[in-house]
Amino acid sequence: MIVDHRVYTIRPTRVADWVALYREKGYPLQERYLGRCLGWYVPVEGRHDQVVHLWAYEDQADRERRRAALYADPDWQAYLAEMKRADLLLTMENRILAPTDFSPVP
């Protein structure tokens, strides 16, 4: 298993707007194509302009196949265009993580 750890930095004071748009239009599509969401988090302490979400995949090939299917969906492309027009996102970063042999999440 691998985990795609994503961190999005949103324009200050606009996190709620970004989350609302994602919840309505982005998340249903990602849930359909990407499969196993391990968590979706907003800050309580620390930086208040970032959100984090984690997605589990069998391996890198599984991740690539699922993300390719997502990007091929016209509704995903429309969502990305809407997000761009809303101009809420400043940066996005992701890391691919592998669990240790003693990790409680298989």
TrEMBL record:
Transmembrane segments: none
NIPSNAP domain segment(s): 5-104
Domain of life of the source: Bacteria
One Pfam family recorded for the sequence: NIPSNAP
Protein family: Belongs to the NipSnap family.
PANTHER family in alphabetical order: NIPSNAP-RELATED, PROTEIN NIPSNAP
Name the UniProt record assigns to this protein: NIPSNAP family protein
Organism in which the protein naturally occurs: Streptomyces yunnanensis
